[in-house]
Amino acid sequence: MQLNGKVAVVTGAGRGLGQAYAKALAAAGAAVVVNDLDVDQAEVTVREIQSAGGTAVVEGSAIGSTEAADALVAKAVEEFGRLDVMVTNAGVLRDRSLLKMDDQDFDLVVHTHLRGTFTCGRAAARQFKEQGGNGRLILIGSPAGQRASFGQTGYTASKAGIVGLVRTWAAELERSGTTVNAVIPVALTRMVATIPALAELVEKTERGEPIPADVRRTGLGTPDDVAGLVVFLASDEAAGVTGQAIGIGGDRIAVWSHPTEVAVEVREGGWSADAIAEAFPTTFQPHLQAWKPDTVPGAPEGK
């Protein structure tokens, strides 16, 4: 898979998944703008890319504002002359259950994840249009945005919203040849180390120890296991793939379904509360959807 001549931005690329995406894009031949609020960590990523023979520069904006998004795109154009790929990975966690969540924590998470995806996606799409289209928007979702994730009110709302942006932007940008997709990653990173069942596995992964085969089959792996999907979606080979949410982790890859109606009834004159109560047990109750997370032992609900 070759990305020679392409220019990519990866937000939140100082460590973890974002770092893996940036390094994989660079290894495939793309020039990469490595964004992270922690500039020292971003510089680590850039040095590792350059040591491997790749091309990358640092950008230190705090993701969320229009000004930060515009600065990212400007950096790509100033350094490399264009922009072809935007990977919106930056995020923060402020985990609290609903009754304990305060406004500041909720606003910070939504501002970084959801608003940051919006502003970076918009800035990139404007640049793609100026160049004649055919860009790649790769928005990073989460299993937490696809199903229940206890204690992650702001995070789940943001990640679910990001997948909503994918479907809408795919429709809006189709004529220009720009594709828009969500990656739903699962990886053993510091972000999931707070889950007791996974803490030891994260420590082993950081020491470079292999992940057991049975764990990998459940969808738990390293950030590098996710990065190949980002490279594919950034490539010309993925020109026909848009509007999708694709999950990947360990040895598993999967396409998530879009929401769809599972039970529909039409009643002349409409539905009163009594009519709904009468019909519900037989007509609708059998079709109610599971709302709890999949029962995969130790499956992370975070990024």
UniProtKB/TrEMBL annotation:
Domain of life, source organism: Bacteria
Q: What InterPro entries does its record include?
A: NAD(P)-bd_dom_sf, Peroxisomal_Beta-Oxidation, Sc_DH/Rdtase_CS, SDR_fam
State if Oxidoreductase is listed as a keyword. Answer: yes
A Pfam family this chain is assigned to: adh_short_C2
Q: Does the keyword Lyase apply?
A: no
What SUPFAM superfamilies is this protein classified in? NAD(P)-binding Rossmann-fold domains (SSF51735)
Q: Which GO terms describe its molecular function?
A: oxidoreductase activity
Q: Which PROSITE patterns match?
A: ADH_SHORT
List UniProt keywords, sorted A-Z: Oxidoreductase
**Which family does this protein fall into?**
Belongs to the short-chain dehydrogenases/reductases (SDR) family.
PANTHER family noted in UniProt: DEHYDROGENASES, SHORT CHAIN, SCP2 DOMAIN-CONTAINING PROTEIN
Record-given protein name: SDR family oxidoreductase
Native species:
Geodermatophilus sabuli
Q: What is the lineage of its organism?
A: Bacteria, Bacillati, Actinomycetota, Actinomycetes, Geodermatophilales
